[in-house]
Design brief:
Layout (H helix, E strand, L loop, with lengths): L1 H6 L9 H11 L12 H20 L1 H27 L1 H6 L8 H25 L5 E3 L2 E4 L2 E4 L10 H14 L4 H9 L1 H20 L3 H5 L1 H26 L20 H23 L15 E2 L2 E6 L4 H7 L3 E8 L6 E9 L12 H7 L3 E10 L2 E10 L2 E10 L4 E2 L2 H14 L5 E9 L5 H18 L1
Length: 461
């Protein structure tokens, strides 16, 4: 998790989360005098250990980290029971903010917020006389592109502001729904400061582009964060004026029960067994020996490659794939081309790089969906996704493919990766996307898809 906090700009607050939670626990230490140990703690510890093992097998770092918090809650239950759990519920909840993002869920949730921030940023830039063209999350200014933030990577400051808002609310003495309202207010504040920052960079682009994307971009980030903190203080002062209505202090148990040493020993035994198993899982990994995608055949059935291209740098940075392919194929001379994109990920165990769903990346680039459904073709299921951008139309077919299966759903893909990690000791997969320009029927892509599936299946094995 610490590696994710260091590498992901949205997760830098993760270093502060355990410190803040620990300080709150220390503040509440006198309320821990009443302890009623519960055997339910062993159930939570066992569930947490199972989640950590599942994450190590292939479900990713988020699942494993969630298991860590679950096991910690189990230890609290085994030591002090539900009396302690009630007292420590808030610091345990704060630990959620240190968990790495579950990318394909987080990005889909934050996409509408990104689009709203980009609309607001474009409007603000136009107010001061800057000519701006908006396409999804991307603003075009003086021939240059500005993303809000990276096209498919959530909205900047959202998690950090929510964590700071809840912590500030606690320090200010807010309880119950007033503290929750403080956290909810982080959402519009994140949208506002993102929009203001991007609008400022857009205006600067019209005067000095190198400065706008360099020193000014970095300085505006710190300025936006400072403004967000000032606005949080103002929100807290406003919430303080609202009636509390917290219902008074919670009733406490009449007295403590004796410590159940056997339950704590049971929790320690579960964790002691789980730890070496987790460390052994990566050692048993069977490294895939997949030929480079550059050797993908230039002919598939009646289809011939017409040209190839390099994946654009910004897209490659977002994909974080171990190998990628961008080619164009046509069924006959003079026939319309189909764009083939493949992003291959050699392992999903660490969870650092995950496929980006086209349902997030395409709208982020300005392509709005007009139709979305799942179709069955020979070899598996595919997503049919029709999109439009201005007068342009396109039909997109995409799916996830492992060496043994294909899947249209991200959730199914995750389950297959875990199963393959157990059965085959491999967690590699590919995201495949076919793009047909225009708004015609996707018949050609539906004929081409099974050929790509078959060839990929043979190469991945």
């Amino acid at each position: 998790m610490a590696t994710q906090w260091y590498l992901d700009e949205d997760m830098g607050h993760g270093f502060l989360v355990p410190l803040a939670a620990g300080c709150i626990v220390w503040q509440q230490r006198k309320r821990l005098a009443v302890a009623r140990p519960s055997a339910w703690g062993l159930v939570f510890v066992l569930a947490g250990a199972a989640l950590e093992l599942t994450g190590a097998v292939g479900a990713g770092l988020f699942v494993g980290s969630l298991g860590f918090v679950c096991a910690l809650a189990g230890v609290v239950l085994a030591a002090g029971g539900f009396a302690w759990l009630r007292v420590l519920a808030f610091p345990l909840f704060l630990l959620v903010f240190m968990l790495p993002k579950l990318a394909f869920v987080y990005n889909q949730i934050t996409l509408p917020l990104q689009l709203l921030a980009s609309q607001l940023a474009a409007a603000l830039a136009r107010v001061v006389g800057t000519s701006v063209l908006r396409e999804g999350n991307v603003l075009q200014v003086a021939g240059h592109s500005i993303a809000v933030e990276e096209a498919c990577n959530g909205i900047r400051y959202l998690l950090s502001l929510a964590f700071v808002a809840l912590l500030w609310g606690h320090m200010a003495g807010l309880r119950g729904w007033r503290r929750a309202l403080m956290g909810i207010c982080a959402l519009p504040l994140a949208i506002l400061v993102n929009a203001l920052r991007v609008a400022a960079v857009a205006v600067m682009c019209g005067y000095n582009y190198p400065l706008a994307v360099g020193a000014f971009h970095d300085a505006s980030g710190w300025a936006a964060l400072a403004l967000a903190l000032v606005l949080l203080v103002a929100v807290e002062r406003g919430i303080q004026l609202l009636p509390a209505g917290d219902g008074g202090p919670e009733p406490q148990p009449a007295g403590s029960a004796p410590v159940r040493t056997v339950w704590l020993m049971g929790a320690a035994l579960i964790l002691a067994v789980q730890w070496p198993l987790m460390r052994a899982v990566p050692l048993m990994d069977a490294a895939p020996r997949v030929p480079p995608l550059a050797l993908f055949p230039e002919r598939l059935g009646a289809w011939r490659m017409t040209r190839s291209a390099e994946v654009p740098p910004l897209e490659a940075a977002n994909l974080k794939a171990d190998d990628s392919l961008l080619r164009y194929y046509a069924e006959a001379a003079g026939a319309g081309e189909i764009e083939l994109r493949v992003a291959y990920y050699a392992s999903e165990r660490g969870g650092a790089s995950q496929p980006h769903s086209p349902k997030v990346c395409l709208p982020a680039g300005g392509w709005m969906p007009t139709e979305s459904r799942v179709l069955r073709v020979q070899g598996g299921e595919v997503n049919l996704y029709k999109v439009a951008k201005g007068d342009q139309r396109a039909t997109v077919l995409y799916w996830y493919q492992t060496p043994w299966q294909t899947a249209a759903s991200e959730w199914t893909m995750k389950a297959l990766v875990v199963a393959n990690g157990i059965l085959h000791r491999r967690t590699d997969l590919a995201l495949v996307r076919l793009v047909v320009p225009g708004d015609g029927a996707p018949d050609a892509a539906l004929r081409f898809a099974p050929l790509v599936m078959s060839e990929l299946r043979a190469r991945l094995r």
